[in-house]
Amino acid sequence: CALQPTECFLSQSEDKPESTVKAKRRRKKKISDILEKSAPKPGVPADLQNLLSQHFSENRSVIELEELKLSDSCFLPANDLTHSFSSYLKEICPKWAKLRKNHKEKKSVVMLVICSSALRSLDLIKSMTAFKGDCRVLKLFAKHIKIKEQMNMLEKGVFHIGVGTPGRIKALVEQDGLCLNSTKYMILDWNWRDQKLRRMMDIPEV
């Protein structure tokens, strides 16, 4: 009995065939239901390794794919979701004060934090106050900031932490505005979800 109004509503739709409407309804349900019900869990090295393999499998040989694999020693312990951002950074980087003091190179950062949006970048910058001390943090996203401004800042000053989005960070690296030789830590904001409930790694462009 409860299904009858739904069927009646679908059959009255003049603009779209019933099958199209049902298909769209199914797709919407898949996004909201599956992503909403998937509980946050700590990322593991295999998560990133699998994504890299999937992304490059079509245009890389087996040997090239093997070279892309990172050893387990490249990975730090994932946040077990009990930490604040600052307390997590303190745990994985206990000698931050010394690293910060010794960093003198321009066009580079010691720590690179990658997340999916400018607003999220700002939130993370605020939440790392207890960790960063008096070091210099650079915003590496496109919103309201031109890439030339960021390149000039990197060229003229010494920055310790960069927080930004994949697209802008990639552009800075490609245009030789950001050098990664001095980067010792790369943090991926793995579990945060946007308004559509997507994690950074769920976004095709990323």
Write structural notes for this entry.
This protein has 206 residues and is an alpha/beta fold. The protein folds into 2 domains: 42-75, no CATH class; 84-202, P-loop containing nucleotide triphosphate hydrolases (Rossmann fold, 3-Layer(aba) Sandwich). 47% of the residues lie in helices and 8% in strands. The protein is built from 10 helices and 4 strands, in the order ααααααβααβαβαβ. It has helices spanning 3-12, 18-37, 45-56, 62-68, 85-92, 96-102, 118-127, 129-132, 147-156, 166-174, and strands at 111-114, 137-140, 161-164, 185-188. The chain is globular and about 45 Å long. Residues 1-13 have low confidence and may be disordered. This is CMS1 protein.
Measure the end-to-end span.
45 Å
Number of helices: 10
Give the CATH level 1 class of the largest domain: Alpha Beta
Q: How many beta-strand segments?
A: 4
Q: How much is the average pLDDT? A: 86
Q: Main sheet? A: 4 strands, parallel
CATH superfamily heading of the largest domain: P-loop containing nucleotide triphosphate hydrolases
Whole-number count of domains: 2
The CATH level-2 architecture of the largest domain is identified as: 3-Layer(aba) Sandwich
Q: Over the alpha carbons, how many angstroms does the gyration radius reach? A: 22 Å
Structural class: alpha/beta
The amount of beta strand, in percent, is 5-15%
CATH fold name of the largest domain, please? Answer: Rossmann fold
Low-confidence stretches: 1-13
What is the H/E order?
Answer: HHHHHHEHHEHEHE
The percent range for helix content is: 40-55%
Shape: globular
Q: What's the arrangement of strands in the largest beta sheet?
A: 2-3-1-4
